[in-house]
Amino acid sequence: MIRIAIQSKGRLSQDSQSYLKKCGLEFDIAGRKLLNQCTNQDVMLMCLRTADIPEYVKQGVADFGIVGQNTLIEKAQDCTVVKPLGFGHCCLKIAVPTLSPIKQLADLGGERIATAYPNILKNYLKQHAIRAAIIMLSGSLEIAPALHLADAICDLVQSGATLKANGLRAVWHVMDSQAVLIKSPNINTTPGFLL
Ligand code: PRP
User: Fold this and answer.
1) Which of 49, 85, 116, 145 qualifies as a cystine partner to 179, CB 3.0-4.6 A?
2) CA distance 82 to 183
3) What confidence tens digit (pLDDT) does each residue in 3-39 have?
4) Which ligand 1 atom sits nearest the alpha carbon of residue 157?
């Protein structure tokens, strides 16, 4: 049995399922069933929260996983990237309110930045010798500046629509990301159908 962890809901969920179907796997993930056996191969699909996928794969509870590079780097887990998958392209960016006085990177010094990616942000700020307060949130970050919880956010941007709808402008590019196939340290070879 090969166990593959994919996102249960979210931006990579449908594309991950489409990718696995293109690989020849047959399955029907109906409703909220989180463990799904493929009907034509001895493969089990585990539908998980995206942030948990690197841990399941690292522990060998899942043999493979499909996850965003951003999540993998944030979690710093010891998983091998088998290959980039060419979907789920987005960027991690620092954004500020349209009328913010923050214009240069150095202006972030002493400010509060809300993010769901504290480790990536911490490294980025360190590289640029900036000391700022990091406020850890899990989602809907774009609301934090309007509610005066933060002066800036560091979040994923795909189309840019969420930033625009919330009166924010992206100012600094932290990293590019896309979906990648990862494998557990216990797995030596990747089955041909996944490649
Ligand atoms: C992600 C991300 C942004 C949004 C960006 O959130 O955190 O909020 O997508 O996409 P856009 O540039 O195409 O507007 P998601 O919808 O995954 O939910 P979340 O807020 O719970 O993280």
Assistant:
1) 85
2) 7
3) 999 999 999 999 999 999 999 999 999 888 899 999 9
4) 12
Give every CB contact of residue 51 below 8 A, 6+ residues apart in sequence. 71, 74, 75
Our mutation pick for probing the ligand 1 site, out of 15, 154, 156, 168, counting the most ligand atoms within 8 A of Cβ, is: 156
Bridge partner list, 114: 135, 153
* Pairwise CA distance, residues 107 & 128, whole Å: 12
d(CA 60, CA 45): 14
Q: Is the pLDDT of residue 50 over 90?
A: yes
* Count of residues in the chain: 195
pTM for this predicted structure: 0.94
List residues near ligand 1 (CB under 6 A).
10-11, 139-140, 142, 155-162
183-to-48, 80, 125, 163 alpha-carbon distances in Å: 16, 5, 30, 33
CA 188 / ligand 1 centre spacing (Å): 35
Smallest CA-to-CA distance from 34 within 15, 21, 52 is with: 52
For a mutational test of ligand 1's pocket, the pick from 155, 175, 177, i.e. the residue with the most ligand atoms closer than 8 A to its C-beta, is 155
Question: Phi and psi at residue 43, in whole multiples of 5°?
Answer: -130, 135
